[in-house]
Automatic annotation (TrEMBL):
It holds the Pfam family Lipase_GDSL. It comes from the Eukaryota. The keyword Nucleotide-binding does not apply. The keyword Zinc does not apply. InterPro entries: GDSL (IPR001087), SGNH_hydro_sf (IPR036514), SGNH_plant_lipase-like (IPR035669). Keywords: Glycoprotein, Hydrolase, Signal. Gene3D superfamilies: SGNH hydrolase. One of its GO terms (molecular function) is hydrolase activity, acting on ester bonds. PANTHER family: OS06G0160200 PROTEIN, ZINC FINGER FYVE DOMAIN CONTAINING PROTEIN. This is Uncharacterized protein.
Length: 368
């Protein structure tokens, strides 16, 4: 779990990540222990709190810059924070939730809470260092906060959690608050010493098997690749709004590198042309782990890894034997194979705005 750490030339000595299930390395299941197989089957060979079969984008990024996998901030046993911390939790939103986890499934650890956890973390590091108590702990030196990557992959749940109830028009009304909150959070982290920020935009949710099954739409709203046009158009609008907000925020942070990372373009290409990428991908809008088969292999009544009695019979949503052939792991999250392709595209530098010379700043390692 610690990952392979190599001493290498890199300006970044740590990663601090903020996000939802797309980058949660175990925080949610540390707070609410329950995860079981087949999650983790590909790389870790056991569940590790990640909502996929193996590694996430943030895992691959850590490997590329020569850092260990990030310990979840909420994980009290076995964590090592000398090279960063992960505040992401499954089902997190940018905006404060107005409901309970046990009512709607939305995590209580919204971005504002994650920011407060980061503030507390830094305050404790500074305090313990000033009293000489950090030598025997798994905590970083206080100067690490200015030498770190701050990564964001969050917003999908703000976008999708109310989609079925209030429609695209309803969701669009509060998206300006979402991007504003992200910009404000970055400003606060800048005040804590942060100088390098990578903000990943939203993937095309209209191509996700779960939303193709659950969200209302007409057949005429499907494009030639089987994705929902109206939902994907709404994501594009949100991403433009995010990009504009980051451009405005950048003007207020003269010493910062604030980078918009266009993973949307990469994921859209994977969903539309899964077979064009040379690693065995075959299925775009079909889930590896699910129940029901057919075009999507997703049934909202029985989620990946679970069993349920349906029409008098016990059915199980099991995993495929070849997740490397799928873009979607469970209908909602990407497989390790897709996450690896997205990370390789990011590290290539073509999806940074403005351009960001990560190859010059780090002697990048192969991500395997």
């Amino acid at each position: 779990m610690a990952g392979h750490f190599c001493d290498s030339k890199c300006d970044f000595k740590a990663i601090f990540n903020f996000g939802d299930s797309n980058s949660d390395t175990g925080g949610f299941w540390a707070a609410f222990p329950a995860q079981h197989g087949p999650f983790g089957m590909t790389y870790f060979k056991r569940p590790t709190g990640r909502a996929t079969d193996g590694r996430l984008i943030v895992d691959f990024l850590a490997q590329a810059v020569g850092l260990p996998f990030l310990s979840p901030y909420l994980q009290s046993i076995g964590s090592d924070y000398r090279h960063g911390a992960n505040y992401a939790t499954l089902a997190s939103t940018v905006l404060l939730p107005n409901t309970s986890l046990f009512v709607t499934g939305i995590s209580p650890f919204s971005l504002a809470i994650q920011l407060n956890q980061m503030k507390q973390f830094k305050a404790r590091v500074d305090e313990l260092h000033s009293t000489g108590k950090t030598s025997s702990t798994y905590l970083p030196r206080p100067d690490i906060f200015g030498k770190s990557l701050y990564t964001f992959y969050i917003g999908q749940n703000d976008f999708t959690s109310n989609m079925a109830a209030i429609g695209i028009g309803g969701v669009k009304r509060y998206l300006p608050q979402v991007v504003s909150q992200i910009g404000g959070t970055i400003k606060e982290l800048y005040g804590l010493g942060g100088r390098t920020f990578l903000v990943l935009n939203l993937a095309p949710v209209g191509c996700y098997p779960a939303f193709l099954v659950e969200l209302p739409h007409q057949a005429s709203d499907l494009d030639t690749f089987g994705c929902i046009i109206s939902y994907n158009n709404a994501v594009v609008e949100y991403n433009k709004m995010l990009k504009q907000t980051l451009a405005q925020t950048r003007k207020a942070l003269p010493k910062a590198s604030l980078i918009y990372v266009d993973i949307h373009s990469v994921m859209l290409e994977l969903f539309q042309h899964p077979k064009n990428h040379g690693i065995g991908l075959k299925y775009g809008t079909k889930a590896c782990c699910g129940y029901g088969g057919g075009a999507y292999n997703f049934n909202p009544q029985v989620y990946c890894g679970n069993s349920k009695v349906i029409n008098g019979s016990t059915v199980t949503a099991g995993a495929c034997s070849d997740p490397y052939n799928y873009v979607s792991w469970d209908g909602i999250h990407a497989t390790e194979a897709a996450n690896k392709l997205v990370t390789l595209a990011i590290l290539n530098g073509s999806y940074f705005d403005p351009p960001f010379p990560i190859h010059q700043l780090c002697d990048l390692k192969p991500i395997g």
